[in-house]
Write a structure and sequence with these properties.
The chain has 215 residues and is an all-alpha fold. The chain has two domains: 81 residues, no CATH class; 120 residues, Alpha Horseshoe (Leucine-rich Repeat Variant), CATH 1.25.10. 68% of the residues lie in helices and 0% in strands. The chain is built from 14 helices and no strands. Helix 1 crosses helix 3, helix 3 runs antiparallel to helix 4 and helix 12 runs antiparallel to helix 13.
Length: 215
């Protein structure tokens, strides 16, 4: 069964994680991921609701987005409970590329891949006036195409989002468009070549190096 947790344990675990992170001699991704793995093991017996509540507490206290999102991602029941409302709440307040990529790569893209949210949600993000949600739409496509994360390659859905943002000049969005196309080029280089030919005169110069992967 594993350890059982009650409401009073949220504050305790959040404080433990905070103390462990603050005690790191070097605070980097591998070191923080080691802490997250330790707590993923401890939380095996926890309910989905408890893990989500703990993640929220970490975000509220310290904005430890990577740890909070990964605790959800690697708890099967917590991850399976995610839908449109939960993802948008977890992404609320994103204000940097790191925050966007954490929620989109760790949660939103995989949830989309597994059918927990539909295309309409990602398309709505792509049309958002908020640059960070537009970037999140593009970064979410990465999960569709990266084999290591279970992606099988999804040309239609990836390019549908890319087309919606092909004229976006925001640098954070342009970089994400390049990333989305690079990942798709590994799985379907012909489709990426055709996309670049169709939209070449509208694409930012930063996107053009994708051509080398699509050859």
């Amino acid at each position: 069964m594993g350890e059982q947790f009650g409401p009073d344990d949220v504050d305790r675990l959040a404080a433990e994680i905070h103390a462990a992170v603050e005690a790191l001699p070097v605070r980097n991704t591998p070191q923080q991921r080691a802490i997250r793995r330790e707590y993923t093991g401890k939380l095996k017996g926890a309910s989905a609701g408890f893990v989500l509540t703990l993640a929220w507490e970490l975000l509220r206290r310290d904005d430890y987005r990577d740890i909070a999102y990964e605790l959800i991602r690697y708890h099967p029941a917590a991850f399976a409970s995610l839908g449109e409302t939960e993802l948008e709440e977890l992404g609320h307040g994103m204000d940097s590329w790191g925050a966007v990529d954490a929620v989109a790569r760790t949660l939103a893209g995989p949830a989309w891949l597994h059918g927990q949210v539909d295309d309409a949600l990602i398309e709505r993000w792509a049309r958002s006036p908020d640059r960070w949600w537009r970037r999140a739409a593009l970064v979410s496509t990465v999960a569709l195409n990266v084999r290591s994360g279970g992606g099988r390659g999804d040309t239609p859905r990836t390019l549908a989002i890319c087309r919606l943002l092909v004229d976006d000049s925001d640098d954070m969005v342009v970089k994400a468009l390049s990333w989305a196309l690079r990942e798709l080029a590994v799985r379907d280089p012909a489709a990426v070549r055709a996309f670049l030919e169709d939209y070449g005169d509208r694409l930012a110069a930063r996107v053009r190096p994708v051509e080398s992967k699509a050859r």
